[in-house]
Amino acid sequence: MAVLKKVEQVMMALNGDEAVAWAVKQSNVDVVSAYPITPQTIIVERISEFVNNGEMDAEFIHVESEHSALTAAWGAALAGARAFTATAANGLALMWEILYITASTRVPVVMAVVNRALSAPINIHNDHSDTMGARDSGWIQIYSEDAQEAYDNTIMAFKIAEESLFPVMVTLDGFTISHTLQNVSVLPDDVVSDFVGVRRIPRIKLPRIHGDKEIPLMFNPKYPITFGPLDLYDYYFEHKVQQNEAMKETFPIIERVHKEYGEISGRSYEPVFMVPYRTEDADAIILGLSSTMSVVKKVVDDLRERGKKVGAIRLRVFRPFPADFLRRELSKFHAVGVLDRCISFGGEGGPLFNEVRSALYGLPSRPIVHNYIYGLGGRDLPRSLIVKIYEELLSARAEPEVPVVKYVGVRE
Amino acid sequence: MSSQLVGWRDLPLGAVAFISSKEYPTGEWAVFQPKIDEKKCIKCGLCWMYCPDSAYRWDGEGVPVPDLDHCKGCGICEVECPTKAIEMIRV
Ligand code: SF4
Ligand code: SF4
To answer: Tens digits of per-residue pLDDT, B24-83?
Structure first.
């Protein structure tokens, strides 16, 4: 991370949830709809305090479920508002239907998801089964490593969403980030407000057969339009291809917004999609998401001191999946261990592993890729186990025909 | 439905409807269609009011006319008609 402090920032002691709430408060948000769920609750509690105290000029909608929370945010955003909501685990699962609808109608809602395990049994601690399950719903997904990044990602998310016309999920690990106090550099209100600006409404062109009309993409009695009504075998496929192709075009938008944010904050997170750590001359790499990678980096430091050529790569953006970047970055290593904090039941390894291995398959020379499923329901991943993973990767011989998928830290 | 189908590059964003419901002959699904006995009809308009597909055309005075391009044959009008003027006929 390049540090070129451009504006004076204040250091505040915030936990990850509070950091998100601060970012929302500063981002000219018009509507927040919310249903509290652990470990997300603090986000909407803080926002409701801000609104109550007059510190934030937004409409706060109390709803009776997460399904309604996202529906309200979606409706508000369709009417031209900048809308935010937050959720976790089962709450995200309850939003399922509207996740797809929000994405397919290209509505730029921003949502913080505090990653938490899915039931049953009920567990309030961190893993990624919630957002990994939502990976196909058409939302951009950005994973945060700490509270600072949760703050920065939330601000950037509004710009990314509105410029790409895709909803964005900013994720932060339950409790590890959401409830842990950290020093967070907070930008001045006006700087954030200028950065995100006021929401602009895009215009859409109707096809020639309908008279070449250009109308705003929003609910507006002057130009009545209907969103997502009925589309059978004649057009549904075209709509989905259009959506998928558009998602691939969000890479440059995501990069540009990070660059612009880097210029005002000094925190640019470059490279944007995956952050390498001591990968130069490394033989074995661990690739993973979010807060776990802080610990992995410490282990890399320890092992480097002992002369082991190891490194780490943290993936920041999982959707759109940066396959091209991965191909370029990973082909030079001997072995890559992919950390999945999620199980894909009946699948061949975790979701991250599946896509990484698939991205590398066509390369003439590709690394050995192993999958390590860890930390479900908040289970700790101690340094000693990370060391073991590195040892295994360093001594791995050839890419096996049958993928190696292991559970790390589970009792046999 | 329009015969000029456009490709994905030419679709408006956001799954916005650009083909109006008039152009979707959803009545093609129907297995039954209503037939009104004009002699029994008292022109109360209940069939027009209850039809979930707004398939009836009615000027407020004469006998309502079901638009069979959009009637899906649910039979609600038959049940609601107070004079039993509507009979559902298998297509
Ligand atoms: S059968 Fe159903 S859809 Fe058809 S006209 Fe009667 S009420 Fe309407
Ligand atoms: S409900 Fe029956 S009586 Fe009334 S207008 Fe319709 S057909 Fe005629």
So the answer is: 788 888 999 999 999 999 999 999 999 999 999 999 999 999 999 999 999 999 999 999
Q: ω into residue A320 within 30 of 0, thus cis? A: yes
Beta bridge partners of A339: A372
In whole angstroms, give the CA distance from residue A186 to residue A222.
Answer: 41
At A173, list the tokens. Answer: 């690990």
Task: Select from B1, B2, B4, B13 the residue whose CB has the most chain A CBs within 10 Å, as the one to mutate to test that interface.
Answer: B13
Q: Which chain A positions have a beta carbon within 8 Å of B53's beta carbon? A: none
Interchain contact B7–A (C-beta under 8 A): yes
CB contact under 8 A, A217 and B21: no
The residue whose C-alpha atom lies closest to atom 6 belonging to ligand 2 is B47
- Average pLDDT along chain A, 412 residues, taken 10 residues at a time: 68 98 98 97 98 97 98 97 98 98 97 98 98 98 98 98 98 98 97 96 78 84 83 90 97 97 92 96 98 98 98 98 96 97 97 97 95 98 98 95 96 94
Write out pLDDT tens, residues A127-157.
999 999 999 999 999 999 999 999 999 999 9
Q: What is the pLDDT of residue A221?
A: 83
- Helix and strand counts by DSSP (H, E) for chain B: 2, 4
Summary count for chain A: helices (H), strands (E): 14, 17
CA A221 to chain centre: 35
Nearest-angstrom CA–CA distance, A25 and A45: 12
Cβ(B36) – ligand 1 distance below 6 Å: no
Task: Please state, in angstroms and rounded to a whole number, the distance separating the CA atoms of residues A283 and A26.
Answer: 43
- Alpha carbons A31 and A86: distance in angstroms, whole number: 12
Which atom of ligand 1 is found nearest the CA of B80?
7
The two tokens of residue A157 are 């998310």
According to DSSP, the β-strands at A368-374 and A110-115 are unpaired
CB distance B86 to ligand 2 below 6 Å: yes
Residues of A in contact with B14 (CB under 8 A): 104-107, 165, 204, 217, 227-228
Chain A environment of B2 (Cβ under 8 Å): 209
Q: What is the ipTM of this complex?
A: 0.78
- CA A142–ligand 1 middle distance (angstroms): 48
